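Researcher: I'm preparing a figure for a lab meeting and need a structural model of a single chain. I don't have an experimental structure, so a prediction will have to do for now. The sequence is pasted below. Please return the structure as tokens so I can convert it later.
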Amino acid sequence: MINKAVLPVAGFGTRCLPASKAIPKEMITIVDRPVIQYVVEEAVAAGIRDIVLVTHGSKSAIENHFDKHFELEASLEAKGKHELLEELRSVVPGDVNIISVRQSEPLGLGHAVLCARPVVGDHEPFAVLLPDVLVDCEGLERNDLAGMLDAYERTRRSQLMVEEVPHELVHKYGIVDTGGEVPGPGESRPLAGVVEKPAVEDAPSDLAVIGRYVLTGRIFPLLAETPPGAGNEIQLTDAIESLRQAEGVDAWRMRGRTYDCGHQLGYLEAILAYGRRHPRYGQGFRELLARYATEE
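Model: Understood. Here is the structure written out token by token.
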């Protein structure tokens, strides 16, 4: 059973500027909660109970969000605002642990994951969730992360979650090569490699890596030995390639859909998707959309 998830949240969020100048990009809200909370809820729904935040000194707002705010809770209770109080207390379920470690230098995603090594250890598998991306599994009985964790339990091989993208857009993504054997939704296939932003005519598939991983503990010594790559940073993909050669890695094809909240249009699309079905604000939001749709 995989119990730990690593969430790298130490980056500066330059794609979200100027919104992320003073506020961590992970704290920008989708409807009524920050992006990071949706990602933590995704992990918890998949059965994970230890959330490891790899953070930075300027990102204390994230840690504060998941911490208990005694004074605020006492004030809400005194004012009889019990529904709001319960919502605040449910941000972190009682059986979930939020653990923070610091990435002291911006040395890349691979280095950020490596910073979690003292907490995770080298002998158990763990998940990695990039908080830029929301994975929307509305209508599914179990979310895609849970499905990918199940795939690991069956195969004992590391898993990369992938999503089919339009063929003409493959040049924007890391595209997986599964040797011509394309997995169906909810299935995994052995990975033959990953091609970063290939030309359309050279892409080995239309399946893009989308920021969800299940990795064995062997990734840590490999990361420790990985030299700086693109951008003079330690690249997680370089260590995953070494892991693939050593013990094999699978591509697991998701069933839901993603929203890239690190990009302004992806963020706006996420608000549309989550806002329309929100239990409290959904109806009013749909009315607003209908009103603006008729305006020129």
